[in-house]
Structures are given as structure tokens and as C-alpha cells.
Amino acid sequence: MRRTIMVVATALLTAGVTVFSAAPALAHGYISSPPSRQAMCAQGRVTGCGDIIYEPQSVEGPKGQRNCHGGVARFSQLSDESKNWPATSVGTTVTFTWTLTARHATSTWEYYIGTRRVAVFDDGGRQPGATVQHTVNLSGFGGRQKVLAIWNIADTVNAFYACVDLQVGGGGGPTPSPSPAPSPTPTRTPTPTPTVTAPAGTWAAGTYYAVGAQVTYAGVRYRCLQAHTALTGWEPPNTPALWQRV
Q1: Where is the signal peptide (predicted)?
Q2: pTM of the full predicted structure?
């Protein structure tokens, strides 16, 4: 009887391990700069986006998808070309910044325009940092373009998807940057221009924070590094890619 119990327990444990191994990776991320479609939705720059406004980092679907929503039906608005998706004006070389709210071993990062893969970066199964940047040459393209970016996870069948609308050759550098401050007049001594920040307040999920905004969380003050809409789980101590301790 005791031997029978041990055999059953071993079988259940083996099955449990199999189920656990097959579970999706707890990895999430999206392109924050230039703003991807999910970033545009989370920032309120595009309306009627559905659930993606709360979780722009969650467009996770099977590998091999060639659409903006990763084959996930509840995010299908991201592939709706009738929406007025803003296009970021860039030069012919663009630096894409991924914000990862959870990191996972990575095989490759891919970038497509239409059916053409314009760039691939091989991580060889390594774990990425909290932010990842790739510089892609788009000199063979001009005008309005939609770039599909794919983050392929190394040890699952899934990938994360993000579409970025661009106006290629419309000016700008690798990433949008603020205009330089005007030169001081010759008759005046130039003085440093203070950084403009939003009034400090207590961090709260669901709030949009611009770069430079300051908040307090658990009695500690933080400065926003990347514009975003805060989500539960993105508290400043947990997201060094988004917040810097002051």
C-alpha cells in the first residue's frame, strides 16, 4: 500500500513539473521610444484602445505572428489601421527603446517593415536589462512606415509584439529629442536653464507621468526617466528604467 502511494505521488509530482515548465514566461515589455501603438494608447494619445491602456507591456502571443496585436484578440485594436495612429518623425537611423517590466532569457529581437525583416539582434539566450536599445538603419525606406518589432523569448513558444508608426526622413535623430534652448543674447550673461518638472506628489497607478515629473513613494522621492502611464506593479522601486531616486 505504501509503495502504491509513493508511485502515485511521484507521478503527480512529475505531472506538476511538466505543467509548470509549460506555463508562459513571466516576462513583459514594450517599445516606449519612439512610442509604440500600445504606448500611444497608454498615454491617451489614441482613444478606443480597450484593455491595452492598462497593460501596454502584455502583447504576448505565439512566435511567428506578423501583426501588431500578437494574435491576442483582446488587443486587436492595435492592428486597426482605421485609427489615427500618430507617426513619430525620425531620421533614417532610429534607436528603439524597449521597457521591460519583467526580464526573461531572450533569443532574438526582430524588426519588420511589411514582410521584409530589416534588422535582427541575437541575444543568444541571455537575460536582458530593464531597458534594451537597438539602432536600426531605415535608409532604404522613406515617408510613413509601420515597423513591427518582436521580442522572441528563448525558452517558451511565445514572443512580445509592438508596432511603431514612423515618418522616416522627416527629420530628427535616432530618437526624438527636445529642441535646443535658444542662445542667450550677447548683452546678457547666460544662466543655466532649470529643468522643468511636474509638481511632486504621491505616486499613483493610472496617472500619466512626463519625463522629469517627481513623485514620492514610501517616503522616498523619485524623478521620471521615461514618459508613461503608471500601472500597478510599476512602483518606482520596482522599475528603475522608469524612475530614478532623487
Answers
A1: 1-27
A2: 0.63
